[in-house]
Specification:
alpha/beta, globular
Length: 312
């Protein structure tokens, strides 16, 4: 069922890619970024983009354990532990799916989680309630915050290093939530979304993220539509949209592929944080372990932890 939903999302996004390009992405990013994106979109046209079925039809690696952080069936975290006694460095991971559980759950990240595990990096892969399962504002934020904070509290039980550097990585809508986590520390003390001891993020990696909720609410023809973003903000943009939150202590790094019609480079340019673009690849390639763009992300993660890519 979800595979069919993904296929529809992919085709819909391709159909509206021209519209997104003309609009220049959220907040109409500078014309130079749009021109570069247009040129990249026409490059490598002979190379087919990866489809969701290309990824989801592969044998799926599985986690080592699942940890509960709440009573709801979706309030869980999958733990991916590398071989050996540890302690191991680990990333906090957040899946996308247009903020909707019916589109994607945490297992869409299993392939890159398994790849990181094989490179000696643990993964704390967060599940959360989407807007269609009791989430949105404030539920999704409370879930993600609680699950991330639990990494600092219980990560050591699973053989993980939980001190600096703390690395968070998220794809698509999960990219929004990753950047939100990075800036969450700046929310007012006493704010329920901030929590008592918010996780201190050192590196936030957005994989084709959608950081500007206000802009997203004005894009009904986008592959994710506008309604989920409306439910994620409920007018509280200063507390939910990274674009309108004070920049935190974390380094923010965006990966926006040149042929990504869900989150084109113009979206990243509009946000303004450091961005890496890969020609010839799209949205699905960002979370597939054998692609150029994932190889770049993995290299950044390994470097952050002082590890070498022993598999090369």
């Amino acid at each position: 069922m979800k595979r069919a939903i993904f296929a529809g999302l992919f085709l819909g996004a391709v159909a509206v890619a021209g519209c997104a390009g003309q609009a220049g992405g959220p907040r109409a990013a500078d014309a130079a970024a749009d021109a570069a994106h247009a040129a990249e979109m026409t490059a490598d046209v002979g190379k087919p983009l990866m489809t969701w079925d290309d990824l989801l039809s592969r044998p799926k690696p599985m986690p080592d354990a699942t940890v509960r952080y709440g009573a709801d069936a979706l309030q869980v975290v999958d733990v991916w532990k590398p071989a050996g006694p540890g302690p191991h460095p680990a990333v906090v991971m957040i899946h996308g799916g247009c903020w909707q559980t019916g589109i994607a759950e945490r297992d869409i990240m299993n392939w890159i989680a398994g790849d990181l595990r094989s490179h000696g990096v643990g993964v704390w892969n967060i599940e959360y309630r989407g807007v269609d399962r009791g989430g949105g504002y404030p539920g999704t934020y409370l879930d993600v915050g609680a699950a991330a904070d639990l990494f600092a509290l219980r990560g050591r039980e699973y053989g993980f290093k939980t001190g600096a550097p703390v690395v968070v990585i998220g794809h698509s809508a999960g990219g929004h939530l990753t950047l939100w986590l990075a800036r969450r520390w700046g929310l007012a003390k006493g704010d329920a979304l901030r929590g008592d001891k918010p996780l201190k993020v050192d590196l936030a990696i957005s994989q084709g993220g959608l950081p500007d909720l206000r802009a997203q609410t004005t894009l009904p023809d986008h592959g994710c539509g506008a309604d989920a973003a409306v439910q994620m903000a409920r007018g509280e943009f200063a507390r939910t949209s990274p674009t309108e939150m004070p920049k935190g202590r974390a380094r923010e790094l965006q990966f926006n592929n040149a042929r990504d019609s869900i989150a084109p480079p113009s979206f990243g340019a509009a946000y303004g944080a450091e961005m890496v673009t890969t020609a010839g690849e799209g949205h699905a390639e960002l979370i597939a372990p054998d692609t150029i763009s994932w190889g770049k992300q993995r290299a950044v993660i390994l470097k952050a932890f002082g590890l070498k890519d022993a598999k090369k």
